[in-house]
Structures are given as C-alpha cells and as structure tokens.
Amino acid sequence: MKTALVCGAGGFIGGHLVKKLKSEGFWVRGIDLKPNEFAASAANEFIIGDLTNPVVVADVLNKPFDEVYQLAADMGGAGYIFTGENDANVMHNSALVNLNIAELSVKAGVKKLFYSSSACIYPAYNQNDPDNPNCAEHSAYPAAPDSDYGWEKLFSERMFLAYSRNYGLNVRIARFHNIFGPEGTWTGGKEKVPAALCRKIAEAEDRGQIEVWGDGKQTRSFLYIDECLEGVRRLMQSDFEGPVNIGSEEMVSVNQLAHMIAAIAGKEIHIHNIPGPEGVRGRRSDNKLIYEKLKWAPSVPLKDGLAKTYAWINAQVKVKVDQPTYI
Ligand code: NAD
Ligand code: GDD
User: Fold this and answer.
1) The whole model's pTM is what?
2) Minimal CB count within 10 Å: which of 223, 226, 307, 321?
3) Per-residue pLDDT for 323 more than 70?
4) Per the database record, which ranges form the NAD-dependent epimerase/dehydratase domain (predicted)?
C-alpha cells in the first residue's frame, strides 16, 4: 500500500486532499497545528504538531513515505496578507516549516514531495491591467510579488528546487490560484473573496446590501477544490517538476462574482463598494504550460463550484443564526 504524509492536513485543501488520497487507496498520515474545523479527518493517523520544530518534523517523517504533500502555511485572503500586520509571522512560520521539511525529507528518504506555492509570487507590475494580467510561469522574474507572503513562497520554491538539484529530492511545485469550496475558511478574517461574498449574501435580506472591498472592478480567477486536487494528483504522477499554475482561466471582476453568487442565492443584492485591502488589480491563471505538460487543464465553469460552495456556507450561516445564546 502506498503511503502519504499530508502537512497542513487540518486545513482546507489538506483536509480534502487526505480524503482524495484515501479514496485512491493510500495509507495517510496527517499533521497540523489543529484538527479540521468542519469534519473529522479521514487520515489513518492525525498528529497535532508544530512543523516549525525540526524534532517534530523528523518524528513525523519516521517512515519512508512514497509521497509528502507540503501544504502547511500561515495563509489567508486579502484581509490577512495585504494589511501588513501579519508579515513577520507569515514569513517566519512558513519559511521555518519549509526549511525543516526540505532538509528532513532528504534525510528520511522521501520518494516524492509536493509543494504548494501561490499565484502571489507573480510580479505586481504584470497585474496592473484588470483585463490583461500576465501570470505565465516564466513571467515570475524579475521578481516583484506584492506581499511578503508571496516573497516567502518564491523563496521556498527556489529552496525546494535547490534541494532537488543538490540532494536529488524529487519535487513537484504548483502555484495555486485562489482555491475555493466547501469546508474552507468562511469567516474570522482569513477568508478569501468567494467565501466572504457567499457569507455576506447568505446573511443579507433579499433586496439588501453587501459591502465589497475596492471598486469591485479588480479581477481574479477562482478554482474549485476538486479540480485543484485533480491537478495536484496529475502533477505528482507526471515527470514534470514545475513550478506550474493550478488555476482557472475564467476571469471575473469581484462585483461580477458577487452578482453570480446573488443569482445562485436567488436574491437581489445591492453592492456597496468600500475601501479595503485589495492586492493586485487583475490576476488570472495562464494554463498553457499545464496543458502542454499534463495534457489537462481545469475546465469546470465557476458557477458550478460557486453553487456547491454557497449551499455549504448558507448552511453554516443558518447553524450560527439558529444557535441559542446562553447568558
Ligand atoms: P489553510 O490555512 O486552510 O491550511 C493551512 C494549514 O497549515 C492550517 O490548517 C494551519 O494550521 C497549518 N499550519 C500552519 N502552520 C503550521 C505549522 N507550523 N505546523 C503545522 N501546521 C501548520 O490553507 P489552504 O487554503 O488549505 O492552503 C493550503 C496551502 O496552499 C498553503 O500552503 C497555501 O499557502 C497554499 N495556497 C492556497 C491557496 C488558496 O486559494 N487556498 C492559494 C495559493 C496557495
Ligand atoms: N477576502 C475578501 N473579503 N476580499 C474581498 C472582499 C471581502 O469581503 N470584498 C472584496 N474583496 C476583494 C479583495 O479586496 C481583493 O481585491 C479580491 O477581492 C480578492 O481577494 P482574496 O480572495 O481575499 O485574495 P487574493 O485573490 O488577492 O489572494 C488570494 O489568492 C492567492 C492565490 O491566488 C490569497 O488567498 C492568497 O493567500 C493566495 O495565495
């Protein structure tokens, strides 16, 4: 039986990845600082541990895993990574985790390692035009990410590639573009715009108003969790090291996204655009390379994933509203 370790298994993508690996017949160990928030983990073993501690990392790698998935990171949406308040913690935590995992994976004889990088590594100067952003993989340099979160991801990409060249660590690197779906963070400050707008619309009355940060003309592309995992598994099974984009090419403005969700909810919603942390003006996955290397690229329409995500977040909102308050 093939074995896998999922680092960050208590998070959104990690939790779903554990389920997928189990359904494919893997024996899975998960590790995270915390358990999954919304469902019990499907992992065979789930360890609560801090991967910034090399002793913990050496211990969790005490089997010669066939595959290791490194998803653990300090991460959040625009309200978390663009305010500047979390930069030192994001860089310190995520860099230490990645340094430990690279070094100790070589020592432990890990056969193949996946690293989740981000679209946030792309230079801000190529993402000023909301209608025509450039996120082709080769455009990453000269580097100018617009957040320290993006700089850490770029550093860690390079570090894993250096371990590949110098120590033969067999790595695969993907740059995720705004992944969304059920069981993702939807409240509390770390949520990304698909979940934030689903929540705001679920909480709004019909013909009510919601607040959207910025002028709403900034653009993004969003990828549903199932297609993200399909891309990850295909990359792991291929000979291509990456880095490669895993994202959708279907780009919408943030106000358009709000209208799409309102239509799914069956509500008429008035959008009030307010100042807020915005990040780049435009961003969209460029899928030429993934298609060339894997003969596959995401293709499911955005509205399909939004419908499943809205239904889940709407149910979470209802549970919260229905909860009795004890005094
Ligand atoms: P998430 O925040 O839900 O999951 C990350 C998990 O890592 C969390 O459960 C957290 O507790 C854990 N973690 C953080 N520091 C740790 C430590 N020191 N030791 C052990 N566990 C630790 O985020 P996600 O959306 O599931 O993202 C997974 C990965 O994909 C991250 O590396 C993220 O940067 C990357 N990524 C995600 C997106 C996206 O849109 N979701 C986009 C680009 C890149
Ligand atoms: N989060 C959030 N909440 N964003 C909002 C809101 C809101 O209520 N209203 C409008 N927005 C706008 C933000 O201002 C930003 O311009 C845009 O929606 C997208 O915001 P996010 O989804 O939070 O983040 P992002 O796309 O800029 O970056 C995310 O994706 C990267 C990968 O593509 C982050 O999650 C990064 O960590 C990730 O790496």
Assistant:
1) 0.97
2) 321
3) no
4) 4-247
What are the catalytic residues?
A: 149
pLDDT tens digits for 5-36?
Answer: 999 999 999 999 999 999 999 999 999 999 99
Amino acid at position 178, single letter: N
Give the ligand whose atoms come closest to the C-alpha of residue 46. 1
CATH number at residue 118: 3.40.50.720
Q: What is the pLDDT of residues 76-134, one digit of tens each?
A: 999 999 999 999 999 999 999 999 999 999 999 999 999 999 999 999 999 999 999 99
3-state secondary structure the chain: CCEEEEECCCCHHHHHHHHHHHHCCCEEEEEECCCCCCCCCCCCEEEECCCCCHHHHHHHCCCCCCEEEECCCCCCCHHHHCCCCCHHHHHHHHHHHHHHHHHHHHHHCCCCEEEEEEHHHCCHHHCCCCCCCCCCHHHHCCCCCCCHHHHHHHHHHHHHHHHHHHHCCCEEEEEECCEECCCCCCCCCCCCHHHHHHHHHHHCCCCCEEEEECCCCCEEECEEHHHHHHHHHHHHHCCCCCCEEECCCCEEEHHHHHHHHHHHHCCCCEEEEECCCCCCCCCCCCCHHHHHHHCCCCCCCHHHHHHHHHHHHHHHHHHHHHCCCCC
Q: Is the ipTM of this complex over 0.90?
A: yes
Query: Residue 320: its pLDDT value, please?
Result: 80
How many A from CA of 192 to the centre of ligand 2? Answer: 5
In a domain, 143, yes or no: yes
The residue to mutate among 5, 13, 70, having the most atoms of ligand 1 within 8 angstroms of its beta carbon, is: 13
Determine the pLDDT at residue 326. Answer: 55
Residue 134 maps to a domain:
yes
